[in-house]
Structure formats: C-alpha cells, structure tokens
Amino acid sequence: MSAKPARSTGARYLAPIALSAWATLLIGLLTLPLLAPGIPALRDMMVLDHPALSPGALGWGDLPARGAPQDGVLALIGQVLPASWAMRGFVVGASIAGAWGSFLLARHVGAGPWGSAAALTIGLANPAVIERLLQGQWSLVMAAWLLPLIAWAGLSERPRAQWVAMWGASLSPTGGLFALLMGFFTARRQRWATALVGLVLCAPWWVPGLLAGADTTSSTRAVAAFAPRTEAFAGTPGTLLGLGGIWNAAAVPGSREAGWALAGVVLFALLCTAWRACPRPLLWLGGLGLALACAAWALPSVLGMAVGNFPGGGLLRDAHKFTLLAVPAYVALAGALRPGRAAGALALAAVQLIDAPLSLSALRPLPPEALPVPPTTMEAVQKEAAGREVLVVGSYSESLIPVEGRPLVNPWWKALGAVEPGNLTVDGVEVDPPNPRWVAAQGAWRAGDLPELERLGVGLVVDGGTGEVLAATQAPAPDTSRGLWLLGAWALVVPVAVLLLRPRAKAARKPRPTASARSGRQPPARKRPSPAARRRYPGGGAGGRR
C-alpha cells in the first residue's frame, strides 16, 4: 500500500530536478559559445568593450535608429566597464528569465512535467531564436525569450514583474514593440499604465523616427530582399508556422535544408489540438505575428507600400521576425497538451536542434587581432576625436567588412561617432542607398576641400586600414543631449513605475457568522472528536479528513 505514494513522491521531487537540468542544458547550448574571451562579432553583432557615445548610438544619427537604445546603453556602460561582458550578462540573464517565464506560462495553463519540458524547449530554442542568434541579433533574441514571461506576468496580474520583463525586452526597436503589444494585450491589471511604460521604453527609437519623418522610410525593394525564405520540403507557409524562414540562408543551420523543418510543421499541428486551453490574447497575437510574416510572402506589394511610405516602416521589412510574437502562444499550447502529446511535442522540438551545437559555435567571439585595426588603435582615435564625428576613408570604410570568412558590421561605426555610408546590398539588390552626407563628405575629401568637410560636421579623417589620422578640422562635437534625455527616460521609467504602483488592497475576510441569518439562532457547535477517533485518525478531525 505504501509503494504507490512513494513512487508519486519520488516523481514529484524528480520532475523539478529534471526540468532544471534540461533548462540548464538548453541555456548552455545557446549561450556558452559567447562566454569565451574576445570580441562578440557575427553579422549584425559587433560589441566592442568601449564603444563611442555618439548621436548615432543614441538614435540621432544620419541613419534610422535601428540600434537604439541598445547601442546607447552599451556605450554608457563602456565608459566604466567592458561593454562586451555586460552584453554577455544581458544575454545569459535573459535566457534564465526566459526559461523561468516559459515554465510559469506552461504551469498557468496546467502543464505537467512533459508539458513544461516541451514549453521550455519551444520558448528557449525554437528555430527563430537559433536563426536570429546566427544573424547576430542578440537583443531581439532577448526579447523573444522574455515574451513568455511578459505574457505570464500580465495574465497572472503581476504588473511589476511584467514591466521589468518589458524593460529587458526593449533593448532593440522590434523587441520594444513586441513587449508593448504583449504587455498591453495580456495585462489584467494596470493595462493603460503598461501601455505608457511600453511607449516610454520605445521612445529612444520612435521619437527620432517621428521627428526625422520621411528620412526613416525604407525602400519597398527591401520587402522582397528580406522576404521569408522557404526551407526544404516545408514550403514558405509551413516554414513560418514552424518559426523558421529567416531571409539570410547563411544564418540557417544545415539541418533545415535536410528536411528537418518538417518537424516544425508537425509540431504546429500537434500544438493546435490544445487551442481551446490557450489564453485568447496569446492566440490573437500569435495569429497576428504569423499573418504579418506570411504577408511578406503572399502580399509583398501591400507590405511594401507600408514600408516605403510610413516613418519607421522599416521595422516591417524583415517580416520573419514577427513569428516571434507566436512564441508565447506556442509555449502555452505545449503546456496545455496531454502528457503523451506533450512528450511528442518535446521530441519534435528537440529534434530540430540536431545540429544546433555545431551551428552556434559561430557565436564564439573573435580574437582582437582578427580585426583589421586593433581595438586599442580604435580607442586611441576615439580619444583624439573627443566626441567629434569622423570620416573613415580608404580600405575598410564600407558598411560591412569580411573577417575570417564572415561578414561583420564595420567596427569603426561602433568605435567612433562616424559618418556612416549606410548602404546595404542583399543578393545584388540595393535595399538601402548610401547616406547623402557620407557621399558629400567622401567627395569633399577626394577634392581636398577641408572647409566643406567642416561644414558637413566632419572633425577627423581616418584611414580605415591603419587608423592613421589623415586630417582634422575645427568642426565641433555634435549635441547628444536629446539622446541622453531619452535614454534616461528609458532607464528610469520602470523603476519609477514600480515605486509608484500602489500595492493591491487585500480583500477583507468576512467574519464567521455567529447566528443564523434567517432565524437568529446560534449555529450548532462543531463536535469535538472523541479520544478514540483521534487515535484512529491522528491527522484529521472528526471523520478523519485531512
């Protein structure tokens, strides 16, 4: 008679240990390559120890504020600490919070051990996260990990926890937008306060974009260049339903082209069997994200019109990232599955990670000597510039440079307040034209016209291949106060909101009535158990109930 409770007790203690071990394994798989010493650099990721605190880093440069507030935060940290290690801390912290959030959201819909394990796997290591990591978009991956935590905090009426999670998710413009949407539509308390917090968290990019107006619009050709990409045997819609399909084929694990994308399609079909148990806001937001991603494939002209005519429309051009809005719904659906189906969902999610360790090894940081110019030389030029803007000429003056066979963001744009070219070509299609001020400055340098360079705001001219200062003008350092004010608002809005939120009043407990409401007579006294009954049922009262 005692064996069955013993097995139940053992399983009760074993399940949390197994889930913790599985979450630790997934977090290690995703983040361990980044923890090696060196410079985190891969495609869109270039994190120096001491980046420049420039107008561009704060979102007020010539180009759209696609790196705000992330670049400004790292530049501020880099004044006193190595920013690259702060970035590593952000990523690891977000992965731990994401694991916890996926677990809590799964438990919110009644998940058992198998459902929790499936939810953890989908929330942490889905194909969209893997592909975005390989694209170098670490802050967007942080947002993807934190979305389930934002959803759980809103659904469970914990606005403080929700705002803190939104704070961490808002380092990138897309992450801030997703955090705002998820926070607003899942909040059951303080919904409008959540909307206000989300708007302030997004201010470092939408305020410059709004004031810049048409200058921040993106080319409609970018929609075709950044359109979701089909993966083997799944088709474009099936690929997107499985959360794959990033535009850059080089940022995709090889297994996706070997047919493993089909596992994502089967997983989606399995998750749909639990749709009735999924909170409706998550279903609606997940459907919106998948619809926007599919629109780039099915209705490119309509999406192109929005991208080309509205300030900030460039957020829509890389439509695959909107599949990340479906991650909380997938997590909740996995948690709501029956144990047998949940085990199947876990297997389908895990089998898509078959070559993830090999693919994610590309995240290993570069040694400093691998860069064309050592970081120490860049820091010396940064010190000499003293906040003035720099024109980089000669070799290594392009937007992207090849290093060890991988395309990287030019480190000069992070090390200095530089006049950037801003042009981008994808598969031979120019999706972003060159920055007009950069074109004018390059022409003035070739003509030897230093007064024109000064008029354009160029303080130094530097050789990109050697770091040698070739010329200097009397151009003053640009004003960074607007960007710093917005960054300060971003940094303070959540702590202030948390402090101002009044504690929720506890419902007063009604006193136990001492008389019958109808007759006014005293209710019958509860009988005390006899000594024999107490000996027979030592853990309960009369009748032995526990």
TrEMBL record:
Q: Where is the composition biased (Basic residues)?
A: 524-537
* Bias-annotated ranges (Low complexity): 513-523
Q: Does the keyword Transmembrane apply?
A: yes
From which domain of life does this come?
Bacteria
For region Disordered, the annotated ranges are: 505-546
Keywords associated with the record: Membrane, Transmembrane, Transmembrane helix
Its name, as the record gives it, is: Uncharacterized protein
Q: Which organism is it from?
A: Corynebacterium lowii
Q: Specify the taxonomic lineage.
A: Bacteria, Bacillati, Actinomycetota, Actinomycetes, Mycobacteriales
